[in-house]
Structure formats: C-alpha cells, structure tokens
Amino acid sequence: MKPLWIFALSLVLGVLWLPETSRAQVGVLDPSGKYLVSTVDDDGSPLQGTLTITSSSGGYTGQFEASALPQPVPVVAVTTNADRVLIIVNTAQGLALVNMQQQKDGTFKGTWHRLNDGIALTATKGK
C-alpha cells in the first residue's frame, strides 16, 4: 500500500471514528445495507451499481457491483458520523474514497475520488 493511501485512510478513520459504545449515544449513522448508486466512470459514462455494506466484527465490509465492471470492487474501510458515510474501496486502478451525506429525505448525495496521487510523508507518534 502506498504511503498516501495509508495516511488518507488513517486521516479519514481518525477524524470520524468513535468507539462502538459511544456511536449510539451521539446518533452515529449505521451504514449497513444496500445502496443503489448512480455515478459516472472515469470516461464520464453513466455507471449504476449496488454498494453493499455489512457490519462485521466491530467494523464494516462490503463491495460495489455493477454490470459494467469486470469484478466486484471490495470495500476496505467504512466510517460514519451523524449524517455522513466515508468509504474506502479498492478499485483496479487503486484506492478511492466515497463520500456520501444523508439528505433530509433519506437519500444520499456525494462524490468519489481516486487516491492515486500524493506526496510522501513520514510521521512519528509522540510519547
């Protein structure tokens, strides 16, 4: 895994992650379920598929499936807050971030971004 991906994943999970015991207390969104997703691919062609997220051992797993894709795209990580779901998926071209916000009518709007570029970094955790 490239350093940027590790940093991006750590940043996303670190910003919104809450211990399981406090998730219900603050009204954190449960992302488990199936989502019908409409977007476009890298060429701008329409792409529709199903994103499935399943609760698993204190975390989440899942995949995105679409008839236009040769194989399912695995979900690497999921984190939520009160109205937003951030998902890291592992596409054939590398990791991508899916950012969805729940609307008042219950639907989700958002964007997805590739994580292929970046600048290397080194970090040391303080004592």
List the helices and strands and how they pair.
Elements (H helix, E strand, L loop, with lengths): L2 H14 L3 H4 L9 E8 L5 E11 L2 E7 L7 E8 L3 E8 L2 E9 L5 E7 L13
Antiparallel strand pairs: 1-2, 2-3, 3-4, 4-5, 5-6, 6-7
Characterize this entry briefly.
This protein has 127 residues and is mainly β.
Task: Tell me about this structure.
With 127 residues, this protein is mainly β. It has one domain. It is built from 2 helices and 7 strands; from the N terminus they run ααβββββββ. The protein has helices at residues 3-16, 20-23, and strands at 33-40, 46-56, 59-65, 73-80, 84-91, 94-102, 108-114. The chain has a 7-stranded antiparallel sheet. The longest helix is centred in the first third of the chain and has 14 residues, at 3-16. The protein is globular. The two termini are 26 Å apart. Residues 3-25 have low confidence and may be disordered.
